[in-house]
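User: Sequence in, structure out. Go.
Assistant: Echoing your sequence, followed by the structure tokens.
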Amino acid sequence: MARDNYSLAACALIAALLSSDAAHADASQIARGKYLAQLGGCTDCHTPGYFSGKPDSRYLGGSDVGFKAPDGSVVVGPNLTPDLQTGLGGWTAEDIAKALRTGIRPDGRVLSGIMPWPAYANLTPQDMDALIAFLKSLRPVKNKVPGPFSASEAPGLFVMQLTPPAKTSVAR
């Protein structure tokens, strides 16, 4: 009986050590993902209040500013938190990776031209996994952003306009 208790205790210790290492690895991966999200400027377009200099507590919960593209359409940076109704909660890791690598959402829509997915497409598999682990670790924020809006719709929010440079001719 004492021998069984000893075996049980040894198994419990090994399991605790293994889960501790796994938790550390997950924390390390999430920290790497957070670093990448900060470096990639995700908060700029996906956190309410960022462009007014007062980001609010809905970190990566979707912007409150629209971006007007040269074609007249307006998009608002969506909620990147794992909220099931208004964020990425229904997206799998594969869905997120596909969107960041190809610019195609799970519903088939193409990401806006302002989203720099071609740059994210170059992430290593480990960095992509870390970024996804970070996004999935966020506190879910219920915040449905409006849009996208066609050129004929009035978005009813502050809109930044993206204007391509004027074409100039170079004299030789």
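User: And one key feature?
Assistant: The beta strands are 66-68, 74-76, 159-161.
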